[in-house]
Amino acid sequence: MPTSTNRLRIAVYAFDGVTMFHLAVPQLVFDEVTRQGLGTWETVLFSERAGSVRTAEGYRMSGVHGVSATEDADVVVVPSWHEDARPVGPTLRRALRRAHTRGATVAGLCLGAVAVVHAGLLSGRTAVTHWQAVDALAARHPDVAIDPSVLYIDHGDVLTSAGTASAIDACLHLVRSRLGAAAANQVARHLVVAPHREGGQAQYIDRPLPPRPADDPISRVLEWALLHLDEALTVDQLAAVAHMSRRTFIRAFQASTGATPAAWVRSRRLDEARRLLESTDLPVEQVAAGCGFGNAVTLRQNFAAAFGTSPSEYRRRFDARSASA
After folding, report:
1. Which domains can be identified in the chain, with CATH numbers?
2. Strand, coil or helix: 280
3. Radius of gyration of the chain (CA)
């Protein structure tokens, strides 16, 4: 069974051809927990055979453990996978399934999600991977719902993430879920990355958007909406701020953000609710009013749907003031 969240052993899978960046992300984030004195999180590299692996950049990395490293790991991470999306070999498949069965969390980051799905750990559930692998993975595993629109999906026992940078978000999410908001923010601050991007945020796909000028109407709407979250914020109201027709605004907004106006506003309200729950002692009713949900019932319904917990329980777990103290 997993140990205390203050002490974790994390096994990261390494293979010939893995990029150094993919291999470094989980080690960088999780080792920072130890460096900051937030807990004792130990990461080790493992492969099917102990010894060494050659990275995509041509470097030989030694000191790699065998699959026995997964036997006492609390978290097993597959940080990437072969670009040809080959099936998981029997040794790795067996190691992932055994770790999962005894209660370890299994994480597939970026193309590593392909390996986790191949291992049979997500049958009947949802997963996300890099957008380029979505169609092939969905066709090969119709029993798994592949969602290309999110950064990561956490089922508690199995976590998958989207493209390369999303691996950082997913690893910070693991820190946040085990040690709280203050710890995740501290790790993010020292790594100079965003402390939290929610799993439901759209990943970037094959249609990169040019930087928006300062006078871009959608940018103006986003900035304005963030200052008026406690108001109704209807689509018509947002379209008026952008000086667009309703129909044109909806198309432009989705092309720019990857979300509908309603979904984006709801996510930002949930962000503000979490901030208030973490950093203030305002009653839930006032939190609901302050972030635009109107009343505590509506906040609780949206909060539970998004995070699987209540605002009160979230505050109890992630009160940044208590963590800082």
Report:
1. 7-191 (3.40.50.880), 210-325 (1.10.10.60)
2. coil
3. 21
